[in-house]
Amino acid sequence: MKVAVVGATGMVGSVMLKVLEERNFPLTELIPVASERSVGKKIVFANKEYEIVGLEKAVSMKPEIAIFSAGGDTSLEWAPRFAEVGTTVIDNSSAWRMNPENKLVIPEINANLLSKTDKIIANPNCSTIQLLMALKPLHDKYSIKRVVVSTYQSITGTGVKAVQQLENEYAGESGEMAYPYPIHRNALPHCDVFQDNGYTKEEMKLSNETKKILGDDSVNVTATAIRIPVVGGHSESVNIEFNKEFDEGEVRKLLSDFPGITVQDNPAVNTYPMPIYAEGKDDVFVGRIRRDYSQPNTLNMWIVADNLRKGAATNAVQIAEYLIENKLV
After folding, report:
1. Is 9 annotated as a binding residue?
2. Which residues pair with 68 in a beta bridge?
3. In whole angstroms, what is the distance from residue 80 CA to residue 101 CA?
4. pLDDT tens-digit readout, 138-171
5. Which of 192-198's residues contact partners 24+ apart within 8 Å by CB, and which partners?
6. Lower CB count within 10 Å: N or C terminus of the chain?
7. Please, what are the domains in the chain?
8. Catalytic site residues?
């Protein structure tokens, strides 16, 4: 089982390697892939040294699985090249997510849709993954009509450049800017690029990807995505209107019983999800579960997850595990 990690030296790529090692992923050979400036450098994985190779070399090595985290342009150009030699690609960029030919997968929700013919599988957006993990069991029971979500997103979602900007601002130093404004002591209502409709790409991903993953175009999602000076993970304030009446106790049980969800919801002792506790963990944490008394059949929740793990690396590795367990590669 040869596995290529494309973008191995990036922020998500390095977490990908860590997750593969932690989960004792059954690979026989790792192929770390990065840009030309990193080719020839060495990385250590599971106490063994591996040399970083370029994309052309990686394709020629014909890995069974290639996990991409190298940006949309790289994925559009190289994922088909890997697929042509029989490799199954799991892509972490937005390049293939809304293509009708490609499955958009959260393993706990819809991995059962995968088959041997799926050679390019899309990993959803980080904010979508944690949102859908909490929505899925509730949608199955009560049927969701509408979701209003405001995100409070970690700078790690932007990458190393954003982390460096925040560190520079903490230290009172000038440097390269990942954002158009300072992020220290600030909140930017601007994640990804603005579209003609006034929403950002990030906000539209939450809407479009939700429909595709749930397989239900009747679920309406409206989003506002905000970048905040946090590194531990993304947080989401979520208001859900159901088509049916619900019971709060049953909501908590449905969430608690869903794999990959941890309910942290005891306001009496100040227990609720926070990025500082989610960092480095694979679960999605849900709390502040309460009825919205302003209208019928409506619930409020607060959802937090480490965007580099379940929001990216862990979800991709779980897809790869499913493929192997079900002999789809």
Report:
1. yes
2. 6, 91
3. 13
4. 999 999 999 999 999 999 999 999 999 999 999 9
5. 192/225
6. N
7. 2-124+312-325 (3.40.50.720), 127-307 (3.30.360.10)
8. 126, 234
